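Action item from last meeting closed. Structure (213 res):
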């Protein structure tokens, strides 16, 4: 039998939703089922894109405005797609990606005020029309206060976005909820409040029903 074609799965959500933990748990669960899985993240996921990541996530909140961020994000995403995601999918691997273009719609488009139309146009220019679209997007949702408390307890240098106000994070949550609602075939909304094992089981249940794993 030919190898099953690779699938592209993205995890999305605001700060402190536990996406990175879930991405790792998902990679392990898919590997247990005998699948080849590439785990990657945005911004980043390829050497040049990781350099751009550092510019984006560190430093003062006022360092970039939303358009500068969006341009940097699409530069990183283009490299990531060409060097990591597309080659892995072509090898028949499953790609689990911690954040992707929905984050740009939510952070820069909605919460950052650029609007969705601007992000769509940038995406069409930077990535082209034939760029891979996720087969399934898991939108992890958690109340803003709880997410920020979790994110702040992590510490570290990557706190540029976390330092934006609660109002920004509320807009962000609303945006992700709206994305999940408006694209129900691609997106699944996951309650990220319970313990990680429970969230992981919910994610597997979604993928079992949608992708037959
Ligand atoms: P991430 O590594 O997922 O951080 P966290 O685990 O804290 O959520 O993402 C880094 C930051 O980059 C995060 O604060 C969100 C931001 N970001 C955007 O603003 N737009 C984007 O398109 C992406 C991919 C990330």
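Sequence:
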């Amino acid at each position: 039998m030919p190898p099953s074609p690779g699938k592209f799965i993205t995890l999305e959500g605001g700060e402190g939703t536990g996406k990175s933990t879930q991405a790792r748990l998902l990679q392990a669960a898919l590997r247990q089922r005998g699948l080849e899985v590439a785990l990657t993240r945005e911004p980043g996921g390829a050497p040049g894109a990781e350099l751009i990541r550092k510019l984006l996530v560190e430093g003062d909140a006022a360092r970039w405005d939303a358009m500068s961020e969006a341009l940097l994000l699409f530069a990183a995403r283009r490299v990531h797609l060409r060097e990591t995601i597309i080659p892995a999918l072509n090898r028949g691997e499953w790609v689990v990606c911690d954040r992707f273009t929905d984050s740009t719609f939510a952070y820069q488009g909605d919460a950052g005020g650029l609007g969705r139309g601007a992000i769509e146009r940038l995406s069409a220019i930077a990535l082209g029309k034939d760029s891979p679209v996720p087969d399934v997007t898991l939108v992890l949702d958690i109340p803003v206060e709880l997410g920020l408390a979790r994110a702040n307890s992590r510490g570290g240098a990557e706190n540029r976005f976390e330092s934006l106000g609660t109002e920004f994070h509320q807009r962000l949550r609303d945006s992700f909820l709206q994305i999940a609602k408006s694209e129900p075939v691609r997106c699944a909304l996951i309650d990220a409040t319970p313990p990680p094992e429970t969230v992981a089981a919910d994610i597997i249940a979604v993928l079992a029903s949608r992708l037959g794993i």
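Note appended to the action item: Strands lie at 8-13, 37-41, 94-98, 136-141, 187-191.
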